Amino acid sequence: MLRQWGASMKKRFSWPVVILCVIGGILLGTQVPALFSGDNVIQQSQKLLEVLNTTVKNYVDPVDTQKLVEAAVNGMLGSLDPHSVYIPPEQMKKVTEDFQGSFEGVGIEFSVVNDTITVVQPIGGGPSALVGILSGDKIVKIEGKSSIGFNNDQVMKALRGPKGTKVSVTIVREAVKEPLEFGIIRDKIPLYSVDVAIMVNNEVGYISVNRFAQTTHDEIVKAIETLRGQGMKELILDLRANPGGYLDQAVLAADEFLPAGKKIVYTKGRRDEFDEQHFSDGAGKAQDIPLVVLISRFSASASEILAGAVQDWDRGLIVGETSFGKGLVQRQYPLNDGSSFRLTIARYYTPSGRLIQRPYSIGKSSYIADAMKRDEIEGENITHSEERDSTRPVYKTAGGRTVYGGGGITPDYIVKSDSVTPLSESLIRKNIFYEYTVSGMGNALAEIRDRYQSKFPDFRDQFRFNDAQMRDFLRYARGKGVEIKEDQYTRDRKFIEARLKATLARSLWGNDGWYSIMLLEDNQFEKAMTLFPEAKKIAGLR
């Protein structure tokens, strides 16, 4: 989600007992009452207040006033656009953590498997990693009390807590007879927006960014510097399924790839104070690196800003599927009960003048579904002939290529993501890949760890599941309620083996291991790897 933060964010609004205060707070807080006459605002507020008072007084059952008020706020914002929303207090803490980039706790990624908390991986350098907790460990007690049957919320409530406080956990580990006791001192745990930064061969670097949070630009700069130190000469930047985030972080990230004085994005609102223009400063660390950007139909908002700037300036190639199409800017306004609301205050435009926002008058559910139903023709789309018959407005890139507004970013090379059968979907949905590696392999996981822990290239290039092991995996999946159809397994076998191997790799080497394996079966990535000559040509790089 794209947000804009400013001094007016610091304003606090009184949470109302009555609708009148809600309306007044929203309208005054967002500084839009100039749209209406004062008399009209008061008149409409009084109407809502009358409905609320009459309902509270006369409804057949007792009424929760707060729920009525929140429903009114939701309805009011929902009538504006799909991205102006109300955020209840209980959701705000999670939102803040996601975008400020940290929380306080023990530092593990976990999954509840067969009612047992299972460590997916300890976060590198975090409190759990420091005391020796490993991937696959099963947490059976917290503070001496059984944690069997905990749901995700209960796990987080038990393990998160203020920095410096201690929590004890009892762990069962494969190949270790007795339970292990650990005392973990909670600490601040970073939430990274760069999932991985790896070299995929001697020259090509790969960076995957999952959102644009408070630390994203710094993470990208660090990733670029690290990869350059490892010999990177070309870069694939993966923004697939990146839903966006902070506007300023998208601007700073785009700035890394552009020469000085290039417009990156501009915003236009009804009020002049929300109009902004952002330009590159010429200090970017990656201006000379040939670039391919991967996007998907789930890439939105801030990720579309970066992709749009790259495309409009012919700085690199965009590969994948047409992005979501969210070109509205939200500002978040806090309320004093811990809730907030986000209000659309402007639209953003790419350097060529494109509005990326898709029409949303069709209704919210159809608006979302429409982005998922596109049937694009795969292939080279440098001249954007795929959209030639569109009624969308026409624009030109810096090099004179035609591009279109009003419907997301359409790639220069359209490559649909690989589809899988219902069998693979079921295996993923039921978390069978992970469950098998931690519960179904017996001592094999420990044996693989002992053999390959310090030899990832050998694991990547040599290890594979044999036929007997794959039959055992299918037997395990059947036992978990997955219907195995042989024709579907035959079609998906290569994918299933790769995902199972990648799941193992993640338990040993984290995201570096996961991506290094899964990218080998990624058709969009595979296409991107072939396009650097064209990316150099379009960007005027040698």
What report would you give on this structure?
- The longest helix has 33 residues, at 486-518.
- The protein folds into four domains: 3-88, no CATH class; 102-190, Pdz3 Domain; 194-418, 2-enoyl-CoA Hydratase, Chain A, domain 1 (Alpha-Beta Complex); 422-521, no CATH class.
- Strands 11-12-13-16-17-23-20 form a seven-stranded mixed sheet, sandwiched between helices.
- The chain has 18 helices and 23 strands.
- Helix 1 (19-29) runs antiparallel to helix 2 (38-58) and helix 7 packs parallel to helix 8 (247-255).
- The protein starts with a strand and ends with a helix.
- Mean pLDDT is 87; it is low at 1-37.
- Strand 11 and strand 12 (204-209) form a beta hairpin.
- It has 542 residues and is an alpha+beta fold.
List keywords for this structure.
alpha+beta; 2-enoyl-CoA Hydratase, Chain A, domain 1; 18 helices; 20% strand; disordered N terminus; 38% helix; 542 residues; 6-stranded mixed β-sheet; 4 domains; 7-stranded mixed β-sheet; Pdz3 Domain
CATH second-level architecture of the largest domain: Alpha-Beta Complex
Number of strands: 23
Sheet-strand content, in percent, reads 15-25%
How many alpha or pi helices?
A: 18
Examine the coordinates and then state which fold CATH places here, giving the name of the CATH topology of the largest domain.
2-enoyl-CoA Hydratase, Chain A, domain 1
Q: What is the compact description of this entry?
A:
By secondary structure, the chain is an alpha+beta fold.
